Amino acid sequence: MNRWKLHIAAVLLVLVGALLMPGAVYAQEGQNTESIQIEVDAGYQGFYRTSQWFPIAVDVSNTGPDVRGVLEWRYRVNDDELVFRQEIDLPRGARKRLMLYGLSNNFARVGDLRLLVDEQVLFQEQVSLSPLEAELYVIGVLSTDPTLLNSLEAMQLENTSGAQVVHLNPEHMPEQSTALQGLNAIFVHDITTADLTAAQQAALEMWVRTGGVLVLAGGSSAEQTVPGLADLLPVEVGDLQAM
């Protein structure tokens, strides 16, 4: 009997010791949600084409204790149980931008982004989505003008149900060409394309080679729009000259 008591006491000591270990303290401290700030930019200005991959840009900062967890994207509807996950390491003071990629087959209008630590929800945000039907002609616009080319939505195109203009954030351009397949065309105006990362430029190149239509603004804007994407143009653009 005494042996059993000693054995139970030893087990209890081990359990208590485990709870007091730094890892357990870290997990408890990590539950402070105020130290975690997350901003989400899903799709193309919130739009996405059903059955096509789309980008989900996530900006994360941490002012609290070190956090190691998983970013998770899922839908409020039963979208064939589609769940997308990516591990994330957030030491104190970290600021990171991660790119997730989502896909929906069921016209989902709401997505959930969650940060999980030890499978417990540390942060959760509901994100509104606007699904686009396959027959729409979708035009992405990279410009500092938030209304540029919006009038194209009145355009009638053959073999389409209409046009949809979506404004893109150059910093959130995907680095995977598959996440651009929801766009039929991209118009670039007064954006310094040389600031795009090599992976973003490569994604655009692959998208063009698989049928995407890329239009770069000329004139005075060409000095900004051309340099980062010059290899994709069918012509060589020279310096702007005054007449």
What does this protein structure show overall?
- The chain has 243 residues and is α/β, with parallel strands linked by helices.
- It folds into two domains: 33-130, Immunoglobulin-like (Sandwich), CATH 2.60.40; 135-232, Rossmann fold, CATH 3.40.50.
- The protein has four helices and 13 strands.
- Strands 5-4-7-8 form a four-stranded antiparallel sheet, with no helix packed on it. A four-stranded parallel sheet has the order 11-10-12-13, with no helix packed on it. The protein has a three-stranded antiparallel sheet with strand order 1-3-6, with no helix packed on it.
Q: CATH topology of the largest domain, what is it called? A: Immunoglobulin-like
The domain tally reads 2
The helix-strand sequence is HHEEEEEEEEEEEEHEH
- State the major sheet: 4 strands, antiparallel
Total DSSP E strands: 13
Poorly predicted tracts of residues: 1-31
**Structural shape:** globular
The Cα radius of gyration reads 24 Å
Report the end-to-end length measured between terminal Cα atoms: 103 Å
Per CATH, the architecture of the largest domain is Sandwich
